[in-house]
Amino acid sequence: MVRLDTVSALPNDALDALGFTWHTDSDGTRYVADELVLVSDAEAEAYYEAANTLYDMYVQAAEYVIENDLFFDLGIPFNLIDPIKKSWENDVHWHVYGRFDLAGGIDGAPIKLIEFNADTPTGLYESAVLQWALLKHNGLDEARQFNNIYEALLQNFRRLITLFDDPDDFEKFYDGWKILFSSVEGNDEEEVTTKLLRQIATDAGFATGFEFLQNVRFDDEGIFDADDSPYEYWFKLYPWEDIATDEPELAVLLGAIMANRKAIILNPAYTLLFQSKGMLKILCDLFPDSPYLLKTSFEPLSGVKQVEKRMFGREGANTQIMDADGSVLYSTEGPYGNYRPLYQEYVPFSQDRNGNRYQAGIFFAYEACGLGFRRGGEILDNMSKFVGHMLS
């Protein structure tokens, strides 16, 4: 049973002042719960160890995919294969951050990997900022949470320059390189999240800029803002798979920019390997004895309750939960039906006394660095709620 502590909600005007304008869902309900999940120190440590171990496994699995040319199995668009290889081969293409979605981990339930949102993970602002603000608003000790996301991201931005050296040596290596941050105009959540990342990079010591994606200029000489200022790094809150399918010419141009060493793109192209749910099958093949993995296959599993997902599905869309006899128990519609399906053994999410289900999200930036929860029904969709936590 998930243990909860009721707290006073942050008022909407306070959330607006923080830039958190997506605080109310389309049905008029509050997106951020006025409760906190109580997590023990031992449970937080177990989440930390699980995410770190899983990331190492993903790195080994990505190497295996590249060496064995398994891009088709993972649904990788052909026009991104070369950029993936190039970004994987050179350490300067640094993975800034991602988010592991996990079942279990509280009240004695074993931790199980659901998927890894490695390219454009949501929930960053909620996990990094709102949890802290919620505890402070209620007079609670802000330090009593598993949440050093801001500092971990700051240090990881510095690692763009220092790589595997001490990130605190950033100023010894930094030579004025600039990062341009971009999101699509008209999406408040993505814009605020991108600007939060820009602020962290600025605090890390970088010169930074912001430009909506449609105003960024690309050519063989690099990446430029609307004033034609060049940038050595470009962070885009826009999925690689969408670039490949919706902007194929841009995919080719970005590959050329990378090959010509005119700019470095964040998150790197190789994070699309991590993003693909097909990696869940590769992980099972490579690490059959891992306690964190659920049996996963490209074909329906025999005789077990299972979840059908799509390779690049998001927010629970195009998902089915099927009983052991193949009958559909729950399903959602969505825009990802053209992607290849895969099948993952079902595991129940932890529940509270009202039957709500909870999925843990662990942010990763060089190491596991923060925890937040999503609350909803059997399939967590875009109407699920964010629930903060407190160490108890």
Structure report:
With 392 residues, this protein is of the alpha+beta class. The protein has a domain at 296-346. Helix content is 32%, strand content 23%. The chain is built from eleven helices and 20 strands. It has helices at 12-17, 41-67, 81-89, 124-137, 149-162, 170-173, 188-204, 240-246, 248-259, 271-275, 278-286, and strands at residues 4-6, 32-39, 98-103, 112-117, 178-182, 207-210, 217-219, 222-224, 230-231, 233-236, 264-266, 296-297, 306-310, 320-322, 328-331, 341-345, 350-351, 357-364, 368-376, 385-391. The strands form four sheets. Strands 1, 2, 3, 4, 17, 18, 19 and 20 form an eight-stranded mixed β-sheet that branches. It has a five-stranded antiparallel β-sheet with strand order 12-16-13-14-15, covered by helices on one side. Strands 6-5-10-11 form a four-stranded parallel β-sheet, with helices on both faces. Strand 14 (320-322) and strand 15 (328-331) form a beta hairpin. The radius of gyration is 21 Å and the shape is globular. Residues 13-390 form the Glutathionylspermidine synthase pre-ATP-grasp-like domain. It holds the Pfam family GSP_synth.
Helix percent reads: 25-40%
What's the pLDDT, averaged over the residues? 96
Q: Low-confidence runs (pLDDT<50, min 5 residues)?
A: none
Tally of helical segments:
11
Number of strands: 20
Largest sheet: 8 strands, mixed
Shape: globular
Distance between termini?
15 Å
- Work out the oligomeric state of the chains in this entry: single chain
The proportion of strand residues reads 15-25%
Organism: Sulfurimonas diazotrophicus
Keywords: ATP-binding, Ligase, Magnesium, Metal-binding, Nucleotide-binding
InterPro entries: GSPS_pre-ATP-grasp-like_dom, PreATP-grasp_dom_sf
Pfam family, one: GSP_synth
